[in-house]
Amino acid sequence: MWLKKRRESDIFIPDRRTNTADDKIKAERGIIMKKRLLSVALTFCMVLAFVPCIGSPAKATTYYSATIKQASDSRIPTMLSAVGNQAFPSTVSVSDVKSKLSYFITEGPWAAIGGKSFPYPNASSYYTTITDGKYTKEVRGTGCFAYANFVSQVIYNTIGTRLNLNEAAGKMTKNGLKAFLKENAQAGEHVRVDGSHSLDFISCAEDGFYYLDYRADSNPYITLTYATYDNFVKKCNEVGKQLWIYNANTKKNSEAVPVYALVVAGEELARILVS
């Protein structure tokens, strides 16, 4: 509600009364009205703070997956920026994680954009050690598993232990996967679909998430991919396998609402309403 500001010319109306009882009553009513408006504004901000807890209307199912092939793609800074919303141990800095992700995305010999083929394919005996010339890590696997294990160790210097998604194989849900990744997954961690595929998680978006992986021997390159939760869940349920994270980073990501931002917005809204 906007309160009409008095024009300067109105001040000089000859028959305007001053300091009467009626004027005092009107002034008091104006103060009460302003207080009510302020209360409404603050209540509105409190409602905004609780909206994420209540949930939002259901969206249509979206089956979508895309390979990101250009270094200039705007989604790259977006996914890296989202890493800042994740939690890391004191021994691992966000800036170092982002730097190593950039290395795997655009700089390293097997970079997802412009890199050479990954020389540790599936059609081989298990590798125990792999190296890209800069990093050398002990692994036990081939193809996608070896690559995912390698990246995780470069960032966290450990393989990590299994942390299972608490949903039955073949009955994974979009909301279950989304909540699991947003709470437990951090950039560079090895996500495994049992007996089917491995990937390195980067970050979550509203409808999906970003990751690095080695696809297959028929196309032996590392790829940078965005997949919707719907699409990824569909593929997991088709193979009927369980999903877990090799939890190299045991921190839990904070999902707290940035209350300070709502308070600032509320104060500004209240100021406008009572001005």
Q: How many E-type strands?
A: 9
Number of domains: 2
Strand content: 15-25%
- Helicity, as a percent range: 25-40%
Mean pLDDT across residues: 81
Name the structural class. alpha+beta
Secondary-structure element order, N to C: HEHHEEHEHEEEEHEH
Shape: globular
Uncertain regions: pLDDT < 50 for 5+ in a row? 1-20, 47-58, 255-265
Tally of contiguous helical segments: 7
Sheet with the most strands: spatial strand order: 1-8-7-6-5-9-4
The CA-CA distance between the termini, in Å, is 11 Å
Major sheet description: 7 strands, antiparallel
Provide the gyration radius in Å: 27 Å
Descriptive notes:
With 275 residues, the protein is of the alpha+beta class. It folds into 2 domains: 20-52 and 259-274, no CATH class; 65-247, no CATH class. It contains 7 helices and 9 strands. α1 runs antiparallel to α7 and α5 (174-184) packs across α6. It is globular, with a radius of gyration of 27 Å. The termini are close together. Residues 1-20, 47-58 and 255-265 have low confidence and may be disordered.
